[in-house]
């Protein structure tokens, strides 16, 4: 297992150094499972790679559990919609784990149009000694069988297999941007630009549409849904964010169609910061409930905001992720970076929030101490087990040593996807086609 | 004018992006297309805001008379009406400036002819801004073959038009294509 991860690292550095990195290897989503034992990544090529934390050994206590490849499978393939002459990308947009209920692991993975439920299970025994087949699997000559032989389970090398248990398809006209498993563990929602559909995990041939913001005349369209998530404890509550910078909280008990929100969160725009790009940068790219269910976090292009569910007219806290980009919006618009969708994530205790930026930087904000830090995920600047050095972007004037100026930032290196272990201070950060896992320093 | 140059540039870039997104793998992205349309609208508004105080009534005049031009085009057989958007801000200025108004008013005679034909009912009321979500406007600085959008003259207009129309077609549910009702739309020229 150890060798596998080393090989993967070597392969990655080879690819990076020789610029052979293929687009299919670009990581498009990362997610820890609810115990933190497993970490799943999805990529543009439709593959899912699951890492498992190795058991901590008493003999080497300073070597905390590392994550090694546990299973790799092809979740989605490219498809072609013949009716509309459209290709459907195989890129995995989101992965969500189901809490573990038996020995097998279950996760939902989705591309633009189809959600799949995958079962990942271990096999460490194999039946041997069939009556009618020999060891190679060939049918034995019946004339040579003189006695009954019952197969016996023999141990074998551990094999991890992934099987698609359910395929939830044909429910989305637009592109799926998020999925969320309900706390009831029986239903989940899938969300596209204009609709939210509710599914039962057991039933694949129908879903219920619970939000529909498609206008009768598409030319009157002014906003789209960008993300949706179930409340972590209340199985009847979910929230969805819009491209206009607002969040709506809906209660499924009120009506079958949740077009009427029960709470509407929006901060009035500051007219002094209005520009050509105000609409683009106010579009929310990610929405996440806090673990305790009392707060919502949203990410737009330049900020992360924490909202109190009891206060709708303004956020509780606003954090500037990379405000130095405000003056560069025109260039970022021309090179398409302004359309990047960054995710945001809470730590287990909801005291720290994290989100990505450019130049392989990612930012952490401590909500209690109000301190923030910028770190970099790069091979050159961090050796294994080295402590990450905080980075700083110099905005203008004199650049100090170790600072990097805004114009030197590499906008092709962006950290869009990050995830935090549910209980410990372990984070996984996806930097294009590389996965970085960082842990707290062991004392 | 810095603002108007930047606005122009932003509009042009937006159109380029909208057009190239048609060839993108995975089909047109609704969110991205919507944001680009909104940027174009912002740029258009700022452009007109920048133009209005400096430009004399001439353009205000032309705009007013162009305001009701209707254009039909039918690349897919669908009828689409083009309505050039007028900025009501130019109106008060027109009233203020006396003589230049007279001069310029005579100049584009063909506007009048067309105007009679294509005048929308409601006259001045028509000048009220109708904000359409995904509509873009024809900026007056571009050499548009005004009021005659048949196949040929302004291919970029057709393309943008069909970009937006395609998306509606492609993304509509399985079923009948959009009914051929005349749609009130304004298109940006490139």
UniProtKB/TrEMBL annotation, chain A:
One of its GO terms (molecular function) is protein phosphatase regulator activity. It comes from the Eukaryota. Keywords: Repeat, WD repeat. One of its GO terms (cellular component) is protein phosphatase type 2A complex. Signal peptide: none annotated. PP2A consists of a common heterodimeric core enzyme, composed of a 36 kDa catalytic subunit (subunit C) and a 65 kDa constant regulatory subunit (PR65 or subunit A), that associates with a variety of regulatory subunits. Belongs to the phosphatase 2A regulatory subunit B family. This is Serine/threonine-protein phosphatase 2A 55 kDa regulatory subunit B. It comes from Larimichthys crocea (Large yellow croaker).
